[in-house]
Design brief:
Ribulose 1,5 Bisphosphate Carboxylase/Oxygenase, about 25% strand, 10 strands, four-stranded parallel beta sheet, alpha/beta, Rossmann fold
């Protein structure tokens, strides 16, 4: 599997053009789908399923939502770094004891970080709901400088493939240029290549939220 950056960008431009032909009342994202040949990708085998984070070269819009667990200096640093929400250690048990609230938290935020001494509470009260989604937080010391961490999460996507031999991932937004989106797509395809799965790919498509799928030849 080899995809030229110019070919990718041309597909993005076509997807943009055909996506905005419709009377859409909201700003659309760009999504990539990578489809593997089912005969060569038996997803019943654990080694053929994955749930991994990938840092893209270009930040996505709107940025991913990051939630931080912690107090004091860690909470202050997290807020300054631009996290979407800070949850104190005292709040963790309260959230964990309410099934609806803990599911809402896990669903509404893309990534989680935590001060090291909050991790036992997170594991006890939220481990099940976050762990099954691959969203357990990464621990940081209380004095950690979190700006670079949060900025990296703004460029990070989660690539998941479980029950079907395909995965879908957000790679851009209409506010981004075609070249920026193409760079992100190439990074995803490089991820596939680095996993040794290039020869199993059957097709790759890019589309806007409401537009038609355009195959990347």
């Amino acid at each position: 599997m080899s995809y030229n950056i110019d070919t990718i960008q041309a597909a993005v431009a076509e997807a943009r053009e055909k996506g905005i032909e419709r009377d859409i009342k909201f700003e659309q994202s760009f999504d990539l789908s990578v489809n593997f040949r089912s005969k060569e990708m038996d997803v019943s085998k654990p080694e053929n399923r994955f749930n991994q984070e990938l840092v893209l070269p270009q930040p996505l819009y709107p940025p991913a939502k990051v939630c931080a667990f912690g107090d004091g200096e860690f909470a202050t640093n997290a807020e300054a770094a631009g996290v979407s929400k800070v949850v104190s250690k005292d709040e963790i048990p309260k959230i964990g004891e309410d099934k609806k609230t803990r599911k809402t938290l896990a669903k509404n935020y893309d990534f989680f970080i935590a001060v090291t001494d909050a991790m036992p509470l997170v594991g006890r009260y939220l481990g099940q709901v976050l762990g099954t989604r691959g969203k357990m937080p990464k621990p940081f010391p209380p004095q950690a400088e979190l700006t670079n961490v949060v900025q990296q999460y703004h460029k990070t996507v989660r690539i998941k493939m479980r029950n079907t031999p395909t995965f879908h991932v957000k790679v851009g937004h209409v506010k981004m240029s075609d070249s920026e989106i193409a760079e992100n797509i190439q990074a995803v395809l490089n991820f596939v290549e680095n996993k040794g799965l290039s020869e199993r790919v059957g097709s790759v498509y890019v589309k806007t939220t409401m537009g038609p799928a355009i195959e990347i030849e």
